[in-house]
Amino acid sequence: MSTVTSADGTTIDYDRDGQGPAVVFVGGATQYRALDEDTSKAAHQLAAEGFTTVVYDRRGRGRSDDTAPWSLEREVDDLAALIKAVGGAATLYSSSSGAAIALAAATAGIGVTGLALYEPPFFAGADHTEHLAALRSLLARGQHDEAMRYNLTTVIGIPREAVEGMAQSPVWPAMVAVAPTLVYDLAAVHEINVDPDWRARWAAVTVPAVVCSGDQSFPGMAEAADAVAAALPTARRQTLAGQGHGPTPEVMVSVLREFLRP
What we know:
Number of strands: 8
Order of helices and strands: EEEHEHEHEHHHHHEHEH
């Protein structure tokens, strides 16, 4: 494990593997290494094929520190430090809401050379003001377990019975541990959703890009991916058979291999 120091002094912890063109994996809400073995497996497989891979805990998660107040710009600064550590250029692979960070980074001039976006969850006009207020209220009272349940049921729409089952699993404490970061991702997504001209913000992103969705995922994810792909001048759109909101490591590697070595 290695660390970099972001512009605001926050320590970001990451795993680096392999040698070759760099790929940095940007997780979505609640994703970090202690919970997300699939991304680490994909990174290891890709590294064996001649790439440098970076999997990191985003600020406020796992082994990485946090510094208030949160902002999307600070998340981009974290990526800038990581990209600098691997030579100054990297492709970004993002999962779900991690696309907000990846796309912002692509417009920031920090060495992003390509974008592979899996199911960016942007829905024009979807207003999360009430959800953000509810989450912040729960977190301010220290009710992290309740905040995680609220996010899964009310924000995402997972049935309560399924969430109760999740709460009995061994990984639940690790999920609750990162509940304070739920508002980071939701705020980033909300800002995009309520921007009436949100597609225009990415018109200048001309690096190669692929936007993917799974054909077994949540309703609306394919349409969201369509919209993001249409907003990126160079994007290719790809639907992955048999995949839900979290693709298997083998599929992640296949997408990246095809994208990086056409």
